């Protein structure tokens, strides 16, 4: 009995014709066929299989391997991801779309005006962060802080607090958080290491509050007088968007407490802050250990540069014309530690317009420029920086604190406001 007759050839999807396997060697031939389109039947779809022609199959496999070896373009993917993150952040903070551009809010230092070394790190810096101090260096910073209208610093005499300061039982922070927000916009609430009047960290005694941008100190504040603080002072205080006009707040304000309350705690009193500028450093290690590590080191380095100028003020020093440095609770963005907020009075030291490249540092004479009584307009600016390191402190004192400029805007500027120009970062 002879071998069975060979089966008819079968067509492959790419026009190749192949014989099935027989007892002899497999052969493959290529034919070209022309098929007239049928009006009743649509043309057959190409099968999802790779070609059966050996050469074509080899080429197909090489193509697949090449695609596997192709690496995604990291720049394009990173840019797309960052754009998505930025859009999400803007949505979360309610970006109005009218914020000032990075180069419009505060002037950046330039060698032509500020000298060739204006953007150099301090070469004599004697302190440094721990080796394991790692932060986010990739995110875009500018314009992603949530806008605020007023800022209250509550004196606690402490440098660390429970995770949410609104949960500090019996505190003024807890009382403020429990109230309806002020009528003039969002209030930023911070606990601070400002000493309490009785030099105790107990919340059973009246304390002091610093109201910004008004630069007004409010004394004799208790949880019971918080409604009066908000309604009688914060609601009437200038905001970050207010024009630079004299602050007009009552010097005394009686809280409507029960008659049985001691007279000594019924009356809130106010006075101007004696400082020309304030530097606020987040120190809350219960939120992030890096904040607890960075704040003391930065204060030490800031003091080193402020003291020779006669501007450093410790916590109990209220001589007029200086710079106060306070530790505050979490302000957000601890992955960009250290966060620093610089509140400045208008032309705080009389050198905002000085061109150091022309006159030289040694000829920059600080003018206290004390405003006459009744002309106190509060803070003109708040410059919010992040990713601050000890070696940045010399430039921050020299240009940011003294002149309202930013040394490294692209890397460090998170936001802020300038009431004189009527601009802000949100």
UniProtKB/TrEMBL annotation:
Residues 39-51 have a biased composition (Pro residues). Gene3D superfamilies: Glutaredoxin (3.40.30.10). Residues 62-71 have a biased composition (Basic residues). Signal peptide: none annotated. Residues 16-38 have a biased composition (Low complexity). It holds the Pfam family Suc_Fer-like. Residues 1-75 are annotated as: Disordered. InterPro entries: Aim32/Apd1-like, Thioredoxin-like_sf. This is Actin patches distal protein 1. It comes from Echria macrotheca.
